[in-house]
Every structure is written in C-alpha cells, then in structure tokens.
Amino acid sequence: MKDQGLGSWTGRRARMTPDRPALVQDGRAATYAELHRASTRLAHGLSDRGITRGDRVAFLGLNSVEMVLAMFATAKLGGVFVPVNTRLATPELAYVLSHSGARLLLVEDALAAGVAAPEIGELALDVVPFARNGGGGLDALRGPDAGEIDEVIALDDLFMIQYTSGTSGRPKGVMLTHGNVVWNVYNLLVDIDLGSDEVALVTAPLFHTAALNQVLFPTILKGGTALLEARFDPVAAIDTIERERVTLLFGVTSMYLALASAPRFREADLASLHLALSGGAPIPESLLHTWLDRGLMIVQGYGLTEASPGATMLRAADGVRKLGTAGTACFFADVRVVVGDDDVPAGEPGEVLVSGPNVSPGYWQDPQATQAAFTDEWLHTGDVATADQEGYLRIVDRIKDMYISGGENVYPAEVEQALHEHPQVAECAVVGVPDERWGEVGRAFVVTRPGAQLSQADVLAHLDGRLARYKRPATVVFLDELPHNASGKLIKSRLRETTR
Fold first, then answer.
1. Are 161 and 288 members of one domain?
2. Same domain, yes or no, for 446 and 379?
3. d(Cα 197, Cα 212) in Å, to the nearest integer?
4. What value does the mean pLDDT take over residues 337-344?
5. DSSP string, 142-171
6. More confident residue, 500 or 418
7. Residues 379 and 441 placed together within one structural domain of the fold
8. Residues 303, 282 contacting (CB under 8 angstroms)
9. Would 285 be classed as within a structural domain?
10. Residue-averaged pLDDT of the chain
11. % of the chain at pLDDT higher than 70
C-alpha cells in the first residue's frame, strides 16, 4: 500500500481477520471487512462532497460506529479529522469550527440544534446530520462501492487536530500526525500485553485523545473488538463487563469511583478484566485499594494531548511498590525534570519535558504558542514533578494554573474571561480545589463593582451557555479585593491557601 497512515488500517486488518468483529454498539456488530468496506464507501462520498488532501472534517457526536467510520474515511483521503467536544457551549463550538477551517461538519441529529446558531451559520459550513444507530446513519453520504482508495500518505502527514483549552482563554488545536498516533500505540503495546482476542469497553469520549489513542486504536491494530458506548453509565458498564466478558477497561477517576459505588460492584463477576487503564489525573490511593480488593490494579500513566498522549506508564508489576507515582518514560519516549536548562536531582521538583516521535509538531495556526511549548525537540508541559532515584515520576503541581475535572482540562483564564463579561464583576480569579468525585473542581473568587449585589447563583447562571458545564466553578467566594504583589500581579497561591 502507498498509504502508510491510519486510513490504511482498516484494509490491513480486513485482509488479516476479515470476519472478526471490530466494533459493537447497541447489539450490532461490524466485522473488520465491513468496517473497511463502509469506511471506504464513506471516503468516496466525502470525496464527491469535495473533501481532498488537507481539508478539515469536523465531527460532533457521541461515541459511535459513525465516528470511527468518519475518522478512517477522512484519513484515507489525506484529510484532517477534527473531533469536537460535545459539551462545548455555542461560542466555543463556533470558535473551534472557525479556527480549524473545517470544510464539512458531521453532526449527530440529537446535537444538530446546537449548530443552527447564527455564529455557526456564518461559517458557511457543509453540515451533514446523521443518526447514531450503530449500523448506518451516513448512508446518504456514502458513495458507491467504487473500489479501493490508496493515497500516498506518510507518517509525517497531519491526521487530526484535537482542541484543548488554552491559557489565553481560547482553545489550542493540537496537531497530531499519523506517526504521532502510531508511535503512541507502539509505546502502549510495549507496556501492556494486548491480544488479538481483546474485548475493550470504550465508554470515555472518543473526542479525547486517551480513549481514542490508548484504547480504540491499539485494539484495532491487534484485531480485537471495541464495544462502543455513547455515554458512560456505571450500572450498564458492569452489566456489559459481565455479559460480554470485557478484558480491557479505560476510565478517569470519576468513572472508577462511580463503578466502585455501583450497587453490584462487590458481587459483580469482573474476572474477565485483566487490564484497567486510567489517565487525566492521579487516582486517590483509597480508590486504588478499592479496586485492588477486587483483584485489579488500575494502570496509571502521565500524558497530555500534545504527546498523543502517553509519556510515562506505571506498569502493573510496579503498581503497589510505586503507588501514587506516574511510572517511568514509555519505550519510545524520553522524559526530563528540569529547572531552566538543567536536570534536577532526584526528589527535587522541576518542569516535565517530553520528547519522542509521539510528540505533536505544534499547535494549529498558532506559531507563538508552538514556539513557547516546543523547543529543541522537547515539549515543555508546564507540569511540575519529582523523579525518584529509579526515575519514577510523581506529579506534584502545575506551572500553569490548569486543573483537571473529571478527566477534562480546565484553564482558569478561559473561565475568568467569561466571568469578566458580567457587567457587575470587577475582578475575578479561578483556582482548582480538591473534589472527591471529580478530582478537582473550580472555585471562583469574585470582586464586584461598587454597589453591585451578586449571589453565587447569579454568577453561575451567567456562565450558562458561555462555557461547558465541566468548566463552570462549583463554588463562588466573594471578596473585597484579590491579593496582588507590588507590581500588581495577582497572587493565586494565596487564594489556593484559603482552600486547604
């Protein structure tokens, strides 16, 4: 094949295991042969719609067979897939679609009303609604069975743009090449023993890099079966694990907590599970022990979208001995902990740098941010960690003010920008505070204009429709003034001290 990218994977798998189930959703199964045939037909349909090499195809929908088909179809043409977070508010969605320069938007019927807003209509997008049903939905767009597509696509070609919140108040489009994703999958397969008989439960959203690149793609490469669930439901997930004999599970802290809190968790038959992966934020040790009592070590790692996402992995064999750490660098990755240009001694805090073929080439249409984060072949993560004598990383803080809520990155600058749009807000600051369910949630500190009368409910209501719900602070604290240093710079560390 001339196509060395991800679009060729359906054909490569179909010629090896054509009759093995690749995707299952709502009781309907698609074999690898069917996955290849359907994604190729969809690629012909996209081509007839004018999509060609380099064009961006956006997708707004929950986990579905249609999403996987659209992703592979776009890749076959050399196009660039742009998965969109379904939880974005209309202004955020409009920005992502505009900034990415998407030519076509595939939108699930249930979410189509959200793209009817005037600011999205002004973009003159080719909008194609579809029904999620696990077996079709894109039939009207699919072209005839017109033969194979085999474009010349290299590993360095752009495969995807994934948007992640930015410290400037605007999301940044992380560019991921075909090679970035392929090398990330290789890293994962070195660390964990996935088999061709794997049955992976995919309930975390595929518009995020973890579920997509750490679960779906490795499963497909090995020829396993991915069970797609549109939404996470802990009771339904336990039923599915038992019924389908699930072997591989992925989740963030809030998902594992919800599973452990489900009524049948302690009696459920989880014997088929041999691997539970987690990312997004460290899991509390008490929750890790809850799962250990059920005979399963949750395998944690450290990563970020810019690294596709895997940078380190705490392998199961070291899970108890190194509990609370993020493990060591993945096989085809390198990690440093530095202050300035110098590596710090063991146990000393410093910024985490990551290098490897899985690291993004930069941010879409943002050379300034790219230059700041990617220097001398190293990604500056903005995260602070220590490394012990054996090289095991422990994340201790973040240089940037980002916090992670339920596996979602939240940048306070974006929330603060929305708060400042309220005419009665004079000044504000947002910090992350610990939360048992979500890991962290936001707390807003607000100074009102003279004579203004605002309540917590007023402030939160103001954010409705402006921000995704996971970005909204859980609490609001009103202050007479915010702490500043002599130069007028806000001292957020003092605000964090009040939350402890």
1. yes
2. no
3. 19
4. 95
5. -----------B-TTSEEEEEEE--TTSS-
6. 418
7. no
8. no
9. yes
10. 92
11. 96
Q: How far apart are CA 153 and CA 155, in angstroms?
A: 7
Residue 168 has pLDDT above 60, yes or no: no
Asked whether residue 377 falls in the same domain as residue 415, the answer is: no
For 13-56, how does the pLDDT look when each residue is reduced to its tens digit (9 = 90+)? 999 999 999 999 999 999 999 999 999 999 999 999 999 999 99
Residue 343: count other Cβ atoms within 10 Å of its Cβ: 14
Q: What is d(CA 73, CA 70) in angstroms, rounded to the nearest whole number?
A: 5
Count other Cβ atoms within 10 Å, centred on residue 348. 11
Give the end of a domain, one of 385, 414, 441. Answer: 385
CATH label of the domain that carries residue 411: 3.30.300.30
pLDDT confidence band for 136 (50 / 70 / 90): very low
316 pLDDT band, cuts 50/70/90, is: confident
The boundaries of the domain holding residue 483 are 404-497
Same domain, 93 and 156: yes
**Do 219 and 95 belong to one domain?**
yes
Q: Are residues 340 and 418 in the same domain?
A: no
Instruction: Report the distance separating Cα 438 and Cα 206, nearest Å.
Output: 19
Structure pTM? 0.87
The reply to whether 442 and 298 lie within a common domain is: no
Separation in Å, CA 317 to CA 66, 192, 330: 37, 11, 15
Tokens of residue 200, six digits: 């992976």
The answer for 95, left when phi > 0, alpha when psi is -120 to 50, beta otherwise, is alpha
Sheet holding 126-130: strands in order across?
A: 126-130, 104-108, 56-60, 80-84, 158-164, 172-177, 362-363
